Amino acid sequence: MSDVSLYGPTREELRPLLSPRVRPIVLGALLPFALLLGWQALVTKHWLPDYILPSPRDLVLRFQLEVNGGRFWLDVGTSLSRVLCGFAIGSAIGLVFGLLLGLSRLAELLFGPLFLAYRQVALFAWVPLLSMWFGGGESGKLAFISLSAFAPVVVNTWRANRAIPEKLRELADVLTFGRLDYLRFIALPGALPGIATGLRTALIYAWIATVGAELFFDIAPGLGGRLNEGRDKFEVDLMLVALLLLAVLGLVCSRGAAFAEARLLRWRGR
Amino acid sequence: MSRTAGANTAVVVPAMLLVLWSVCSAKGWLPDQLLPAPSAVWQQLLENARSGDLWSNTLISLQRVGEGFALGAVAGLILGACVGLSRTLREMFDPLFLFVAQVPTLGWIPLLILAVGIDESMKVIVIAWASFVPVVLNVAQGMRDVPAGLRELGQVLTFDPWFTLTRIVLPAAVPQIFTGLREGLANAWQTMVAAELFASSEGLGYLISLGRQLFQLDLVLAMVLVLGAVGLAVNGGMALIERRLLRWQGSVRGQAA
Using a CB-CB distance cutoff of 8 angstroms, which residues of chain A are in contact with residue B12? Predict the structure, then answer.
């Protein structure tokens, strides 16, 4: 970033009210703080009945109750293990299928159009089918989460392999690489950025699908199940706590995936 | 390999699957509850088309997507532009917005049902939110990422802020804005199906969940096919509009490079 401006001082330089380090924190906290204040005002003035809008304090109490009661860890743990299992299954199959499409012209011709057609169907349309084939329990949920993680990995792996520079292919020819060597030294490293993008997207999809699966399939432990429970019992505090946790876990998922991607690709910077 | 040969190869696998599927159900290897015959699915499709159920439910689904997407996209364009143009606003909105956006859209449905009921408004709000998020993110990003050279050009030519916005920032941000709109529409479509599965009495998602409740997998599969076809048409339409609107870009970008 250049600090020298040809056009005189910028607005920020004229008014160094807050240091650049503090500014984003202060400004970022402004809106949530105002929201909290307005919420508390709504509750204390009794503009909305308690059962519709619990106070922030109720939320904290509910959270404590869940943590102390032990259910909290079960729900979070179950949801997380579902995401990770479904992600692992779906992305492993997706990786193999994507590599196949990317490496073999014939496989691409045979399966490519079918896969593209499959992608046109909205993900949730598979819920009824999967629940009949795999049941509404754990295996149905895992099947749905795996399916959601599958497509992004395939697409990105496939495309990344197609985009490997011609020069590298020629190099492999010159060095008379066999198929395995080509896969190991050219295809996988060359397609790694694309594959990483696919995996990151897949993890986010898997997270969305987990919440969907917990809402749509049979009720079982898990944050989505708690949302349904909150609706059935009209416990808004439970729903808000579950939603907050969903946001936190979603943040962990996406940040974790971005971090893993950066680590995975670090060698490329050198 | 020639184009037609490619097209022929593309048909091989689906055709084989279809044959396998027919044989499976003809021999009774798989019960109808698990996989109905292709002919039954086709019959179901024809029946629904003839009775008009197919059209009326497709229209309702499309209408929900249209309303929700329009609402979400307009709101997203406005907020995205504000956040993209003003650093102060961005620093104010970003943390809260990025946090709230982490909640999968579906998670809001149970709470929304308590707040506004299971009627039309619930579906439209959820769909609007689903399209709102990517539009905001992409519009803001696009407006922020205007090449510094173009901005300097505006300063050299002493453009006023309005002129800078309409002649420099907006045109430069258009591709990214479209990315946001495309993602928003795709999200709206996905969310429509989910919301209709969750609670509705009309629409394609409703027909699917009806088929599930009646154990009529032929109806479910027929509607999955319809969803795929309509989804393809919607995506294709969006891509067409995008290409038309971005046609000027090829030449401009080419010259700038």
Answer: 110
Is B113 part of a structural domain of the chain?
yes
Q: Which of B1, B113, B193 sits opposite A231 (nearest CB)?
A: B113
Residue B130, pLDDT score: 95
Q: Is B227 exposed, middle or buried (0-12, 13-18, 19+ CB in 10 A)?
A: buried
Report d(CA A66, CA B100) in Å as an integer. Answer: 22
Q: Judge: B110–A122 Cβ closer than 8 Å, yes or no.
A: no
Contacts of B111 in chain A (CB under 8 A): 227, 230-231, 236, 239-240, 243
* Residue in chain B lying closest to A233 (CA): B114
Q: Tell me if B103 and A250 make a contact (CB, 8 A cut-off).
A: yes
Residue B198: which domain range? 38-256
Q: What is the CATH number of the domain that holds B141?
A: 1.10.3720.10
In this prediction the pTM is 0.85
Place of tokens 């992608």: A119
pLDDT tens for chain A, residues 1 to 270: 445 555 655 555 555 567 777 888 888 888 889 988 888 888 888 777 777 788 888 888 888 888 888 788 888 999 999 999 999 999 999 999 999 999 888 888 888 888 988 888 888 989 988 988 898 888 999 999 999 999 999 999 999 988 888 888 888 888 888 888 888 888 888 888 899 999 999 999 999 999 999 998 888 888 888 888 888 888 888 899 999 999 999 998 888 888 888 888 887 764
The shortest C-alpha distance from B184 to chain A (Å) reads 14
- Looking at per-residue pLDDT, the higher value among B246 and B210 belongs to B210
Whether B100 and A234 lie within 8 Å, measured CB to CB: no
Do residues B13 and A110 touch, judged by C-beta distance below 8 A? yes
> In Å, what is the CA distance from B91 to each residue of A1, A20, A24, B94, B136?
18, 11, 5, 6, 14
Asked if residue A137 lies in contact with residue A220, where contact means CB atoms within 8 angstroms, the answer is: yes
Spell out which residues of chain B touch residue A207, defining contact as CB-CB under 8 Å. 104
Number of domains in chain B: 1
Closest residue by Cα to residue A204 from A72, A90, A74, A114: A90
**In a domain? residue B6:** no
CATH number of A62-269: 1.10.3720.10
**CA distance to partner chain B, nearest, from residue A26 (Å):** 8
Asked if residue B198 is part of any domain, the answer here is yes
Using the beta-carbon criterion (under 8 Å), do A28 and B94 form an inter-chain contact? yes
Report yes or no on B33 lying in a domain.
Answer: no
